[in-house]
Amino acid sequence: MKGWSGRTGLAKVNIYCRGTVYFVQWAMVVGYVLPTLGGPVREHRLALAGPVVGIALGLVIHRLSRRAMDAYLGRGTVSRPLLWSGVAVTAVALALALSLADAAHPPKTGIAVAYLIGLGLAPFLAAHSLLVPLRTTLAIQFAVLIGVGAALLAMGHTRHQLVAIMSFVGFLTLWMAFTACATTWTLKVMWELREARDVQARLAVAEERLRFGRDLHDVLGRNLAVVALKSELAVQLARRGRAEAVDQMVEVQRIAQDSQREVREVVRGYREADLSVELDGARSVLGAAGISCTVVADGVDLLSAEVRSALGWVVREATTNVLRHGDAQRCTISVKVPSGGGAGGGDAVVLVVENDRADAPTLRKDGGGSGLAGLRERLAAVGGELEAGAVRGGRFRVTARVPCAGVSSGATLPVDGGPSSGALPPSPHASIAGGAEFCSPRASVGEVGSGRPGASIAGGAEGGEGVG
Q1: How confident is the model at residue 6 (pLDDT cuts 50, 70, 90)?
Q2: HEC string of 14-62?
Q3: Residue 351 backbone dihedrals phi, psi, to 5 degrees
């Protein structure tokens, strides 16, 4: 079970809002029971029923309030038996309060009666206010006050006492209803914000898929049409025994090879990562998610394309996991480039991504998880290494070291997963269209809000190990 610091902001708000309503209602139940245990009304035999009625009132109203808040948030309903149970126990509590007021001398019990009536009515009226419109709530409370006032007037209370009691009861019930509605409304706004972020993430994924599909259609549409026509022509020529059928099939082969090359170029735009772009994207995405991001990087342009690509994947994966795991407030990304870009050979580029408030389950010593494992494979292909783990102060740090001369100039970075000397292995995290739908709500804010190429960071860690 996560502790308080390990919960998300929405989970904390949920606990705070619900806890506030429950606490106030139980405080009123305790306040209802106390006058029956002391003061003038305790001398009456009906006062012994006060604790029993109070406990029953608290249990029923607690359950009713929980269901009512779920219904207010659109995440459940309140059954009729539960609602009528709340009405019944509230009616019993009110009847007991009026009976004690009628049995004892009014001047001595005016304050106690006011407490009993107000605290007996407020919990149910507050829970019921979450189920009906504001006008209905005001009408119901006004009708209840009129009925209680008429009963007290018939029992012999003076007008001054009646005004004092009704003022207290009216203020208490309205205040409790306002507290319940305002608190639950705050929670509802948070839920709607969460849902809006999810919608933004899905729209971003849909937009990327449409763009990808459009690019593929533009590339393959004409070529496939030509292949179909030439294949049909080759079939007709072959049936007639003409040698031109071979020429047509050779042309089909050439078009297919050109199409394969063009598709690779399209996909490469989705699967390549550049360090400079990813650093800009990380700053934009984290800033949009409310995380203070500091980027320190000089001399990045001096690095080779292979090194920039490998480190770009580290930044993308690490930033994704900062968004997905924990509740980070600050993140620091630093790139230390040797003088001259390591042209002399042997020097290493060091990339460090560090964030605070790391999620406890992600601080594993083995560093497992497909995200970090995939990064280690990518770095290994360029002679680099990766370290990830917890540091002091509840922080999580990812460190990547890549020798500047660790990759030959002829190393290739294929996008189709084919075998190649020094090639990086294909990663399941490379396509935003395939990974962003599993991104967190926080990540979705960065994806949609950044509008930059680096925003693809948020879609790259379907199963990534937690960095923060």
Answers
A1: low
A2: HHHHHHHHHHHHHHHHHHHHHHHHCCHHHHCHHHHHHHHHHHHHHHHHH
A3: -110, 130
Which residue blocks in 272-295 are alpha helix, DSSP H?
Answer: 275-288
- How far, in Å, CA of 288 to CA of 441, rounded? 12
**Confidence (pTM):** 0.50
Residue type, 14: N
Classify 392 in phi/psi space as left (phi over 0), alpha (psi -120 to 50) or beta. beta
Q: Where are the alpha helices (DSSP H) in 38-105?
A: 50-72, 80-103
Q: Are strands 395-403 and 385-391 parallel, antiparallel or unpaired?
A: antiparallel
Nearest to 31 by CA among 117, 108, 127, 157: 117
The answer to whether residues 445 and 288 touch, using CB atoms and an 8 Å cutoff, is yes
Q: Sign (positive/negative) of CA torsion 85, 89, 92, 98?
A: negative
Residues 283 and 231: their CA atoms lie apart, in Å, by 51
Q: How far apart are CA 387 and CA 379, in angstroms?
A: 11
Query: In this structure, are residues 121 and 94 in contact, taking their beta carbons and an 8 Å threshold?
Result: yes
As given in the structure block, the two tokens for residue 203 are 């729209």
pLDDT, tens only, 437-452: 333 333 333 333 333 3
